[in-house]
Amino acid sequence: xxxxxxxxxxxxxxxxxxxxxxxxxxxxxxxxxxxxxxxxxxxxxxxxxxxxxxxxxxxxxxxxxxxxxxxxxxxxxxxxxxxxxxxxxxxxxxxxxxxxxxxxxxxxxxxxxxxxxxxxxxxxxxx
Length: 127
Known about the structure:
Layout: H1 2-26, H2 40-61, H3 67-91, H4 99-125
Helix pairs in contact: 1-2, 1-3, 1-4, 2-3, 3-4
């Protein structure tokens, strides 16, 4: 179980970096074809997801008593943020969902769901 905890902690760090880059892209900072107009709600959501993943990574990599609960809560919160982005892309008029945006949301949602499932599995086995 320690191996899974450390792996999820390292993945949480990677997800935090991905959310940070996404927040910067939503803020309007990006090279050439990736540059888009700023979307402040998306910046806030991505920054909160980044912070959540950092908290989960901290709990997992520095074995804290709340590490498994932290991984569950932070993965669930980040997954909620990604699904909010999917809904915003689908329902808000005037938002164009490019291939890269759809691929990003789908991939990150699948990875977070897998991590959430692993954390739930281990939390059940530990009982």
